[in-house]
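Re: [ENG-882] Designed sequences occasionally contain unexpected residues at chain ends

Forwarding the minimal case from QA. Structure tokens:
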């Protein structure tokens, strides 16, 4: 069984390696997930509803876009908002996976 402290240490290190342009997204995603991190939350469903999750992702994307936090990323990628939306989605699923892993590990520890 993996030591959860070692796993968290590794994950936190890897998060620091994210490109600078992604940091506002990661922060916004984590703020939203902090609000969804409670017993019975959809993020802990065995099979989370994709439509519901996509609504959350859209809100995150629109919030970042409306605050102008996607401009640097879009400029650096020389792409439109669609690319940034995809990145938000990928990061959201990654962070959700991490929280699910942590949640399950804490349940096993009881």
């Amino acid at each position: 069984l993996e030591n959860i402290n070692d796993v968290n240490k590794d994950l936190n290190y890897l998060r620091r390696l994210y490109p600078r342009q992604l940091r506002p997204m990661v922060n916004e995603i984590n703020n939203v997930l902090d609000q969804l991190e409670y017993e019975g939350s959809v993020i802990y469903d065995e099979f989370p509803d994709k439509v519901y999750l996509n609504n959350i992702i859209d809100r995150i994307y629109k919030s970042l876009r409306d605050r102008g936090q996607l401009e640097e990323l879009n400029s650096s990628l020389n792409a439109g908002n669609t690319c940034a939306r995809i990145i938000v989605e990928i990061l959201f699923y990654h962070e959700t996976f991490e929280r699910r892993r942590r949640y399950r590990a804490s349940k096993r520890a009881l």
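QA comment: On inspection the terminal residues look reasonable. The CA atoms of residues 33 and 57 lie 11 Å apart. Proposing we downgrade this to a documentation issue.
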